[in-house]
């Protein structure tokens, strides 16, 4: 899917800031910086990957700056960033 | 005839019997320097380097400091930089606590100037480095009460104490405030520095306001002081009320504070003449505000407030709701100024504040204490030192002292901080044993220790929502998911001592 650079979220505590950009290489590359990386780093990457793939995005460069967001918040921010990156409004239907 | 000459033989005989010399007037010579000049030329008033040389400090010895300026402290970094410059190695640094501002110690540790730390807490980059294994020897952590007692008993022997003071005369009568027009700083109580001043082999006062003798309000007596050093600044007072003792505006903290105030008011200990303390942390400090209305409504007055003293406590005192204030550490400028001006607001040494073995310690007569926590577990154990990521980020403070000695200890903590659970199955590090923790207040309900059924009954009768602490832990886990296990290594980077001096827990290094 064609994507352009987009972002969603904030750097507030309990939130996550997601930046999506095109990736020249195949696959999703996630660069995660998290205050809870030790305990939840793998889980956060998993949620980001699953959310993007669920929206049909399997090639992108993702920079995620996490301040302890819960999974539901991560899904919401990733979805918003994906909608902005693709221009395809998943909530429209 | 009975002149002194006639008695000479008898005087000589008496001296011999008492193993003393015979007085010789020829040795006497009056110092006729004008006394104002003498103050400034007495041998105690020296530079930092001279003080260090004269103190007899040697490699391998123990130096000590207080942390009354908290994040504004300038003494530790200044002194250790000087010691490094003078070539000292292998020193043990025993501070009442260490904070983010003490980051420069990392280099001094790497260079072998400092090889061991004794402290109540550790924060910031220094704490992170220590958690990753910066030091060969583990950091020894003690509560404020047990540090005072360890110094008094000699378990923690201090060779040279370097104590910052906001005023001192040239003989070493020193205080945490100054009444002179040249006052540069104010930290209020010097409670944590008093055991050091008294029991260190040598005590050096560093001050940024050298006042005329006698500095009458002094907390530290010249009798305990060997040298006085004048420096540009001992600390930035504006940074005392920051970090763990900020005034909260967080709505969740305010909710927790309101709930905790209700717990206190219905606990059975809210009686005229009760005594109280609040620990650091936004919610715990804010409880005072909400107790105030209850005290006015019910006509209840407190006999004394103890501990880290804030402007809220001072306000209640000035309104007549708290009779006396016992201040081991002034948490803000208002508290420090009250200590300076109000005869019913007194400082107290760490020993008389909270030492287990000191019968008159103020904590022994404390009815209610409200404390914060990083983590509480299902057995009511509390951790205030090590983060849920395994990194040291807090301080023991007076937590175990006050929780154990008070009639009722109330812990306020949110269920979660971001994605970090605060109610857990087992605390990362054991600081205050659950047997000393009575009530835990969260925004999802209040848990009461099963060994305090009478408190639970009273709170339920007052209509408060009492929950099982296991349910709180389960709720936290449900919201955040299961955390991956922390990557602990095999090296012990910290040892936590109980109040009685026994080893209670160890902190392992974090890998990666």
Describe this structure in words.
The mean pLDDT of chain A is 93. The two termini of chain A are 19 Å apart. Chain A has a 4-stranded mixed β-sheet with strand order 1-2-4-3, with helices on one face. Chain A is built from 2 helices and 4 strands. Chain A has one domain: Ribosomal Protein S5, domain 2 (2-Layer Sandwich), CATH 3.30.230.10. In chain A, a hairpin with a 7-residue loop joins strand 1 and strand 2 (16-21). The longest helix of chain A is centred in the middle third of the chain and has 18 residues, at 37-54. By secondary structure, chain A is of the alpha+beta class. Chain B is an alpha/beta fold. Chain B has 2 domains: 41-239, Glutaconate Coenzyme A-transferase (3-Layer(aba) Sandwich); 243-485, 3-Layer(aba) Sandwich (Glutaconate Coenzyme A-transferase). Chain B has 16 helices and 24 strands. Chain B has helices spanning 8-17, 35-41, 48-55, 75-85, 105-110, 124-131, 144-153, 194-199, 251-265, 282-298, 311-318, 333-341, 350-354, 399-405, 453-461, 469-480, and strands spanning 62-65, 91-95, 114-119, 139-141, 160-165, 167-168, 174-175, 202-207, 227-230, 274-278, 302-309, 322-330, 345-347, 368-372, 375-377, 382-383, 408-412, 416-417, 420-421, 423-424, 439-442, 445-448, 488-497, 503-510. Chain B is globular, with a radius of gyration of 25 Å. The chains are: A alpha+beta (93), B alpha/beta (512). At the A-B interface, helix 1 of A face loops of B.
């Amino acid at each position: 899917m064609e994507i352009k650079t987009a972002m969603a979220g904030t750097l507030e505590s309990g939130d996550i800031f997601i930046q999506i950009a095109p990736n020249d290489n195949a696959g999703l590359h996630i660069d995660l910086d998290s205050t809870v990386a030790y305990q939840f780093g793998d889980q956060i990457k998993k949620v980001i990957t699953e959310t993007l793939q669920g929206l049909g995005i399997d090639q992108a460069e993702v920079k995620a700056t996490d301040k302890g967001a819960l999974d539901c918040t991560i899904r919401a921010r990733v979805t918003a960033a994906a909608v902005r990156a693709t221009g395809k409004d998943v909530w429209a239907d | 005839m009975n002149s002194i000459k006639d008695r000479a033989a008898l005087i000589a005989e008496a001296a011999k019997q008492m193993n003393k010399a015979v007085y010789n007037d020829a040795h006497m010579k009056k110092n006729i320097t004008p006394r104002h000049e003498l103050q400034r030329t007495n041998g105690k008033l020296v530079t930092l380097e001279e003080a260090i040389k004269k103190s007899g400090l040697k490699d391998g010895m123990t130096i000590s400091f207080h942390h009354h300026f908290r994040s504004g402290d300038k003494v530790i970094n200044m002194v250790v930089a000087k010691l490094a410059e003078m070539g000292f190695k292998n020193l043990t640094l025993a501070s009442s606590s260490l904070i983010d501002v003490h980051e420069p110690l990392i280099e001094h540790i790497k260079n072998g100037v400092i090889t061991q730390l004794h402290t109540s807490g550790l924060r910031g980059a220094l704490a992170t480095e220590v958690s990753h294994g910066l030091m060969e020897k583990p950091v020894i952590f003690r509560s404020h009460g047990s540090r005072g007692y360890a110094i008094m008993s000699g378990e923690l022997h201090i060779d040279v104490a370097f104590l910052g003071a906001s005023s001192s005369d040239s003989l070493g009568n020193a205080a945490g405030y100054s009444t002179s027009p040249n006052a540069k700083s104010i930290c209020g109580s010097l409670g944590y520095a008093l055991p050091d001043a008294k029991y260190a082999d040598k005590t050096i006062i560093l001050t940024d306001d050298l006042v005329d003798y006698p500095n009458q309000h002094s907390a530290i007596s010249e009798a305990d002081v060997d040298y006085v050093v004048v420096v540009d600044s001992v600390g930035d007072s504006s940074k005392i009320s920051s970090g763990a003792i900020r005034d909260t505006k967080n709505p969740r903290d305010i909710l927790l504070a309101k709930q905790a105030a209700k717990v206190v008011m219905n606990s059975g200990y809210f009686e005229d003449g009760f005594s109280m303390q609040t620990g650091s942390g936004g919610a715990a400090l804010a409880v005072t505000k909400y107790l105030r209305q209850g005290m006015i409504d019910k006509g209840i007055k407190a006999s004394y407030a103890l501990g880290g003293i804030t402007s809220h406590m001072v306000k209640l005192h000035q309104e007549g709701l708290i009779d006396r204030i016992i201040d081991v550490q002034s948490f803000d400028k208002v508290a420090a100024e009250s200590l300076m001006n109000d005869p019913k607001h007194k400082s107290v040494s760490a020993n008389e504040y909270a030492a287990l073995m000191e019968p008159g310690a103020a904590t022994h007569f404390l009815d209610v204490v409200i404390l914060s926590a990083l983590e509480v577990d299902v057995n009511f154990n509390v951790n205030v030192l090590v983060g849920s990521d395994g990194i040291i980020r807090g301080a023991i403070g007076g937590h175990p002292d006050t929780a154990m000695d008070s009639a009722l200890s109330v812990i306020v903590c949110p269920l979660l901080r971001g994605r970090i659970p605060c109610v857990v199955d087992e605390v990362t590090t054991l600081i205050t044993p659950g047997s000393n923790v009575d009530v835990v207040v969260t925004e999802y309900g209040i848990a009461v220790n099963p060994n305090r059924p009478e408190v639970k009954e009273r709170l339920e009768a007052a209509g408060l929502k009492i929950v099982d602490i296991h349910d709180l832990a389960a709720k936290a886990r449900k919201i955040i998911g299961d955390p991956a296990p922390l990557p602990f290594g095999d090296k012990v980077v910290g040892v936590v001592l109980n109040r009685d001096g026994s080893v209670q827990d160890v902190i392992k290094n974090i890998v990666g």
